[in-house]
User: What shape does this take?
Amino acid sequence: MPEALVCGAGGFIGSHLVRRLKREGFWVRGVDLKFPEFAPTEADDFVQGDLRDQDFCRLVVDRRFTEVYQLAADMGGAGFVFTGEHDADILHNSATINLNMLDACRRRRVKRIFYSSSACIYPAYNQENPENPLCTEESAYPAAPDSEYGWEKLFSEHLYLAFARNYGMEVRVARYHNIFGPEGTWKGGREKAPAALCRKIAQIPEGGEIEVWGDGQQTRSFLYIDECLEASIRLMRSEFPGPVNIGSEEMIRINDLAQMIAQVAGKKISIRHIPGPLGVRGRNSDNRLIREKLGWAPSQPLEKGIALTYAWISEQVARDRGGKQPAA
Ligand code: NAD
Assistant: This one.
């Protein structure tokens, strides 16, 4: 039976990845500071602990793992990354995890390791035009990410690629673009735009008003979790090290995303624009490289994933308020 290690298995993408690897017949060890929040883990062995601790990393990494997925990071949406209040923790915690994990994998002679980088590594100067952001893989340089989160990801990309060059490890580096879906953080300050908008719309009555940060004209693309896993696994088992974008090319303005969710919810809404942390003006995945290297790219329409995610978040909202529906 093939065996895999998933670091960050208590988080959104990691917990879904564990489920997917189990379906494929893997024996899976999951590692995280916390257990998954919304459903019991499906890992055969779940080790709770801190990957900033080098001894802990050496304990959980084992030579028998044919696939190691390193997804653990100190992260969140714009409300977490762009306030500046968490910069030191983001840089220190995530970099320490990556330094420790690579060292442990090298010592244990684990060959293949997947690293989840981010579209946040792309330079702010290429993402000022919301209609036409540039996010080809080679446009990462000259580097100018707009957050410390992006700088840490860029540093760690270099770290993984250097371990590949110098120690013969097989690394696979993905740049995720806004992954969303059920069982992701939907409240509390670390949630991303799709989850936050689903929550706000689920919480208001028909004809109600939601708040959106900025003018809502900023563009983004969002990739549904199932396609993120498909792409990650295909990359892991390919001969291409990356870095490569894993994202959707269906770019949408935040105002239009809110209206799409409202339509799925069957509600008319109005939007009030308020100041808030924003990030770049425009961002979209460029899937030419993934298509060329893997012969595959995500293609599911955004609305399909939004419908599944809204259904799950509105259930959480209803459960939170004790099953009561918003007043009409
Ligand atoms: P998440 O926050 O849900 O999962 C990350 C997990 O890492 C959490 O469960 C957290 O407890 C764990 N973790 C943090 N510090 C740890 C430590 N010291 N020791 C052990 N575990 C620790 O995030 P996610 O959305 O599942 O993202 C997974 C990865 O993908 C992250 O590396 C993230 O930066 C990257 N990524 C995600 C997105 C996205 O849209 N979700 C976009 C770009 C990149």
About this structure: The mean pLDDT is 95.
